[in-house]
Amino acid sequence: MPRGRYSLHDPHDHTSLAEEHFHCAIGPSGWRYVSQLTTPSGDHHGSVDLTLDEIGRPIRLELHAAAWQVRGAALDGVTWVRTDPTGADATEGNVRAHAFTGTSPAFLVATTRLLRLTPSSAGTRVRLVAFTDPVLAPRTVDQSWTLLKREAHATDNGPLTVDEYQVTALDTGEQHSVHIAGDVVLAAPGIELEDLESPPSVFP
């Protein structure tokens, strides 16, 4: 069960946004990721609880940020309920999309589990609902993912397979790289792996 800490920062000006303390695990029915976020000053900032089924669909999502809450799942596309800080106003949403995304590294791993790409020059299109900070506002985004290469690196615990993806935002054409080993993000825009207590899990 990988357990560790990511630092999250603005990918443009590198302003520190939060630290995400996480643990994740592969189970008989899929994968679960749980994390707590703290501000640079150490205050509680939010949480992520994401469960995928064995083919990578989000069967349970719960996000908290700035007293806002989102609960969602794959249902008729993806469906979610967003609740305001007072708890008095809940808004339901539904989009014909494949999955969710957001600032947490969990969503990058989740997208790769859903797509199951092999090294290729061809991109695979995916539609995601992004929940944007600080109020978890939903926004539909279209991306293209390409697995550029898969390399094995020698470590003290045996070979570590690292996948390098190219992600293209289809509305702007902006591209960036994402490096993932098993169920841990090694590097991505705005994300740095600061600490990892045990090796990444290997998906079957």
Describe the structure.
This protein has 204 residues and is mainly beta. It has one domain (3-196). The protein has one helix and 15 strands. The chain has one helix at 105-115, and strands spanning 3-9, 16-27, 30-38, 44-53, 58-65, 68-73, 78-83, 90-95, 99-101, 124-132, 137-153, 160-169, 175-181, 184-188, 191-196. A 15-stranded mixed beta sheet has the order 8-7-6-5-4-3-2-1-15-14-13-12-11-10-9, with helices on one face. The longest helix is centred in the middle third of the chain and has 11 residues, at 105-115. It starts with a strand and ends in an 8-residue tail after the last strand. The model has no long low-confidence stretch (mean pLDDT 94). This is Glycolipid-binding domain-containing protein. It comes from Streptomyces azureus.
Characteristics of this structure?
204 residues, 15 strands, 59% strand, Glycolipid-binding domain-containing protein
Topology, element by element:
Layout: E1 3-9, E2 16-27, E3 30-38, E4 44-53, E5 58-65, E6 68-73, E7 78-83, E8 90-95, E9 99-101, H1 105-115, E10 124-132, E11 137-153, E12 160-169, E13 175-181, E14 184-188, E15 191-196
Parallel strand pairs: 9-10
Antiparallel strand pairs: 1-2, 1-15, 2-3, 3-4, 4-5, 5-6, 6-7, 7-8, 10-11, 11-12, 12-13, 13-14, 14-15
Counting structural domains, the number is: 1
Instruction: Kindly provide the radius of gyration, computed on alpha-carbon positions and rounded to a whole number of angstroms.
Output: 16 Å
Q: How many E strands?
A: 15
Query: What percent of the residues sit in helical stretches (DSSP H or I)?
Result: under 10%
Q: Average pLDDT across residues?
A: 94
| Structural class based on helices, strands and sheet pairing | mainly beta
Distance between the termini: 15 Å
* CA-based shape: globular
Number of helical regions: 1
What proportion of the residues form beta strands (DSSP E)? Answer: over 45%
Low-confidence stretches: none
Order the strands across the largest sheet as they lie in space. Answer: 8-7-6-5-4-3-2-1-15-14-13-12-11-10-9
What oligomeric state do the depicted chains represent? single chain
Provide the succession of SSEs: EEEEEEEEEHEEEEEE
**Largest sheet data:** 15 strands, mixed
